[in-house]
Amino acid sequence: MRMYFPKPYLDETVYSLLARYQVHAGSVVGEHIWKELFQRRRLTIRMDLPAHLSIIAEWAGMDAQELLQKHTLFPFYAAFMSEARRKSLADEMIHGSGNKILYMSGHMAGGFSTHQNFRFCSLCVEKDRALLGEAYWHRIHQIPGVAVCSIHEVNLGEFPDTKALRSLEEVLYEPVNIDPERKSKEVVGMVKDAVSLLEQENRIEMNFRAKCMARVKEMGLATLGTERICEEKIKAFFSMRCHEELFRMVGIQSVADMSRWLKSILHRERGLYHASRCWALIRILWGDLASFYQSDATWQPFGKGPWPCLNRMAEHYGQSVILRIKYRNQEPRKAIFRCELCGYTYMKKLDG
Ligand SMILES: [Zn+2]
Ligand SMILES: [Zn+2]
Questions:
Q1: Residue 135's Cα: distance from chain center in Å?
Q2: Would you state the pLDDT for residue 128?
Q3: What is the C-alpha separation between 80 and 44, in angstroms, rounded?
Q4: pLDDT band at 317 (very low <50, low <70, confident <90, very high)
Q5: Claim to verify: residue 164 and residue 127 sit in the same structural domain
Q6: How far is the CA of 323 from the centre of ligand 2 (A)?
Q7: N or C: which end of the chain has fewer CB within 10 A?
């Protein structure tokens, strides 16, 4: 008979919930917790994307979807996935054994380490202890690439990823590295964007690639007609816009590495990307998440056609008879307008 199971705190990870259960139930439980909950002797629960959510939700007296959306990093990873991939990842986490999670979440695609340190904020610890009597692992601190608390804007403390369940209170008994230095505006802004991706539950979808392509065209970093990326311009742009800290946050080694990765996004429509790199790219190309949402997936620098013929000798002068324009590949911000009725051709160039 089930005697007791804790309720998750606000933004607490499932891993943390189970670790607290283990502590609350007492050390006598030991392996029994796994037998009791999962009918197994041992089980690894991931901090970011745990499996077996249907069982855990039942124990916690909650809906599995709620656990998935509010207590795992699923919404962050799912933000850049197609609907079909989202569904299958959710299904694996709720009903599956978890074996396919690393592949399905894009961990393998990003060249990311599949393990990362567990993180906590010492000021959140103080606050939680005062309010709740105990500290717990917050989800917003576990986003890959995030090294700062978005609430207190200080560096997070770290603890090596562990296969065994360790509650934050247990970990805090040991000496841990804390660097309570305030971070730069740029880094804090980026972390806040990541948290908002996590909290808004799957708003971005597969037009991510199209939006990126439209944006690089708009910035003159790709040709308009053939969508060829101007490698040198991209590299120059990245060197100018990104500082080392930002690259380090998302595990990117160099400007060349970043531009290679951008190319792979732009040219593989149905690819699987690591969410952290997509998040970094939004920061680089748009500045912030809000501007990304407002931007269009198509960019029509010369407006919607048809366009007028400018041949003063022709009767149809000024009438919109040109249906197609050609972009000049060497000069991506120039287009050629050719009238099919009279053959008159003119060129237009974008400002800036
Ligand atoms: Zn904090
Ligand atoms: Zn004409």
A1: 26
A2: 95
A3: 26
A4: very high
A5: yes
A6: 11
A7: N
- Which of 144, 171, 198 is the last residue in one of the domains? 171
> What's residue 3's pLDDT?
66
Question: Which listed ligand is nearest to 153 at the C-alpha?
Answer: 1
How many domains is the chain partitioned into structurally? 3
226-242 mean pLDDT: 80
The full DSSP string for 45-70 is --SSS-S-HHHHHHHHTS-HHHHHHH
**Centroid of ligand 1 to alpha carbon of 51 (angstroms):** 27
332 found inside a domain:
yes
Cα(133) to ligand 2 centroid in Å equals 79
The pTM of the full predicted model, rounded to 2 decimals, is 0.80
4 in a domain, yes or no? no
Residue 229 and residue 262 in one domain: yes
Question: Longest C-alpha distance within the chain, in Å?
Answer: 95
**What is the Å distance from ligand 1's center to 121 Cα?**
5
Is 218 found in the same domain as 89?
A: no
Average model confidence (pLDDT) for the chain? 82
DSSP, collapsed to helix, strand or coil, labels residue 311 as: coil
Distance in Å, CA 217 to ligand 2 centroid: 28
Same domain as 156, residue 51: yes
Total Cβ atoms within 10 A of residue 257: 14
Cα gap 2→90, rounded to integer Å: 27
Q: At what angle are helices 64-71 and 14-25 packed, to 10 degrees?
A: 110
Ligand closest in space to the Cα of 124:
1
C-alpha 155 to ligand 1 mean position (Å)? 9
Q: For residue 148, what are the domain limits?
A: 14-171
C-alpha–C-alpha distance, residues 170 and 61, integer Å: 25
222 C-alpha to ligand 2 centroid (Å): 30
Looking at the structure, do residues 18 and 164 belong to the same domain, yes or no?
A: yes
Ligand closest to Cα of 308 equals: 2
